[in-house]
Structure formats: C-alpha cells, structure tokens
Amino acid sequence: MKGIKARVASYPIEVPDQRSSATTFADLALPLFDQLYNFAHWLTRDPAEAEDLVQETYTKALRGFSGFELGTNFRAWIFRILRNSFLTSRTGLKLATSSEEDLEALTSEEPSPEDLLIHEANRDLVRQALTDLPVAAREILLLCDVEEMAYEEIAQVLAIPIGTVMSRLHRARKALRSRILEQSKGASHGV
Amino acid sequence: MECDSLRDKLDAYVDGELTAPEARRLGAHLRQCSGCAADALARVQMKRAVSLAGKAYKPDPAFRQQIEQSLKQSAPAGKTWGWKLVLVPAVLVLISSLSLLFLVRRESGRRAQVFGELADLHVSTLASATPVDVVSTDRHTVKPWFEGKIPFAFNLPEMQGTSFTLLGGRVAYLEQSPGAHLIYKLRNHELSVFIVQERGTEGARWAPEPVTELSFTFETWSEKGLRYFVVGDVGAADVESLSKLLRDAQ
What we know:
The complex is a heterodimer.
Chain A: H1 24-29, H2 33-44, H3 47-64, H4 74-87, H5 90-95, H6 100-105, H7 123-132, H8 135-146, H9 151-158, H10 162-190
Chain B: H1 2-7, H2 10-14, H3 20-32, H4 34-54, H5 61-95, H6 98-127, E1 134-135, H7 139-145, E2 164-174, E3 177-186, E4 189-197, E5 211-213, E6 216-223, E7 226-232, H8 236-249
Antiparallel strand pairs in B: 1-2, 2-3, 3-4, 4-7, 5-6, 6-7
C-alpha cells in the first residue's frame, strides 16, 4: 500500500531454509510462548481455555510446519493459527459474532483528546475497557499496540487487506476511548 | 483544511507506518498546531496505555514446561521422518521399478501420517488437565461408556494380576473417524490404545511387530474389521505385552 512502510520487527521472523534441523520449530515457536499465551488469554478471557488454545496451536503448527512457506513471516503464521483455532472453538464461535456494525455502534461518542490522558494508574480502567470490547476490536489493538506488529503483519494474521487493518484499528481505538470515558463517568457517579 | 487531512494520518504516524517524507511533514505541522499536537499526544498515551494494560497474562511455569516437553518429544521425530522420506525412496529407485517406488512411498507416507497423528493425540491428551472422559480402572465401566458414542463395540482385557492399570477412556478422532482412546498406566508411563474401524486407516503397510517412530513405540494389528494401535514411550516388550492382552480379549 502506498504511503505505508513496514516497521522493523522486534523478533527475527524470517525463517532460514534449514527445516531439516529438528530443533528449528522449537527454536522459532518457543520464544513466542508468552506472547501467544497472553493473546490467547485476551481472546478467551479464561486461563484454562487459553492453555488449551495455546496447546492446540502448537500441535497444529508443528503438524503443519512442513507446509510453512519459507521466507515468510513465522510470527504472523503462528498467530494466525491461534486465531483461527479460537474462532472455531466453542467460545470463539460465541464471542466472535460481534460484527463491524457492532463496533461502529460503540464509537458513536467521540471524546475530546484532553479527556484521554491515560496514566499508568488507570491501567485497570484500560484493561477492563479492552476486556469489554468486541473480539474484532480487542484482537487488532493487541496485535498493534502490545505485539507491535506492522500493519502488513496484522493483515496476514487476520487475513484482511491493509486498508481494512487501518480502518478497523481506527474504529477500535475510537471504541476503546468511548468505553474508557463511559467507565470513568460510571466510576465517578458511583462514588 | 490541513488539520483535517493530516489528522487522518495520526494513527499511522503514532504506529510508525508513515513514510519518512510524510512523517516529516506531519511532524512539522504538529510543532505549529497545538490542537493536532494534543490529539497526537493523546493517541500516543492511549497506545502506551494499551501496551501496558495488554501485557496482562503470564503462562503458568508448569504449562510452559509441558509445552517444551511436548516439543522435545516431537522434535527428533521430524528428523527421522524426513530422513526416511528422502532416503528410502532414493534406495528403492536403484532396486525397483518406478511403479513399485510410487506404491511404497505412498504406503510409508500414509503410515507415517497415521503414526504422526496418533503421537499428537497421545501427547496432547496426556498434557490435558482432563485426559480421560470416563475415569475408571474397571473395564466393565469403561467399555459400556463407549456405547452409542462410537459405531462399533470391542472387548477389554482383565488387568488384575498384570503390571498395567486402566486409567480410563475418551472418544478420539483419527482420520475424521470416531474411535476409542484408552489410557493405561505402566510404572511411571502412560500408554494409549486406539481402536478405530479398519477402513479409516486403509492404504498403509503396517509392520507385524512393534516399531519405534517419533520417539514412541507403536504396535498395530487388525481384527474383525477393527484396527488397534498401542502407543507409548516404553520399550517394545512392554508394548507387545499390552498388545497381547488386548488381542487375547477379542
């Protein structure tokens, strides 16, 4: 996409053509364990289900590793396996039904930037707002802001065009801001 | 006007996705426009807040160990498998016709595929918090539990007086066909027994004796239209003695 450049990823994601080495899969996949678990927990919102999801991801990825296209992005590949496994799980099928329209409805209120000064002390507020977001918004914010993936990488994980990554991210951020404002208002009324 | 067109790019700016000339142009604007600068600052703070709040969950160390262990068990398997797939057909080219080569490769690949799937099922089941759905050492409890869940019946041997203990069973899918998955304990090892309909595993050439592949010992045989597999990280003699008990029960 014009005007967009890929960032330098923090993880060495280019896979060398050395798949005959038996340790290659573990070498590539184990450093991503914490990130995969965190992402799985955010998707499922349950620690036991997150463990099942990560385990299923590793099993599927190991089995499919011979079909992994060399020179492509391993991190995007394994995150995509995790996300697809989630979407076909019982919880995923229930949660992922929130559509783009639902996300649009959440963004009706546009707060002013001055209201959005988020400090570390407000981490719980942000965490709760993230938890409450539809999964489509939650996952794209996590991939971009927590995993620090480039738009191109996010497009691969979610199997959507880069233009859609940008528009979905924009709506997700608006929805998050609205949610945080609502919560902070609710909290101040409750006092 | 300039603010409107540039604000659309603020997300890409804070995400580091703009080209260098675009980022420079936007940076110059932000130094002059307090409204856009406040907007950009809020977005940076929000991004930082999401980054901090999003790193919320850490895996249990025991779970990490379990995954590492599973990968270690599977890793040498890939090596053996790959070696065979390349070398075995290469040798056969010298001694056999092309059609025979094709047939043997297909059967060997098929066998390796089934063994790979069984090894996955065995490891992932044992790693699960609830490996079996029917927990019982009594074959008279376990066997009827499968009735109505799988499209065939089978007999289980009496384990009293042997070194094996039945832990329980669950329904497993092999090659998209439902089958019985039983777990037995032998000393500190667990062995899996899979029973499926023969038609689900056709097209493979099975060895009559235990074989070691993927770090596991496998034994398989067919009886009355059912195919039995015994899988475990134990020696061939142990796998053979459990197989014999099962064969005698049929």
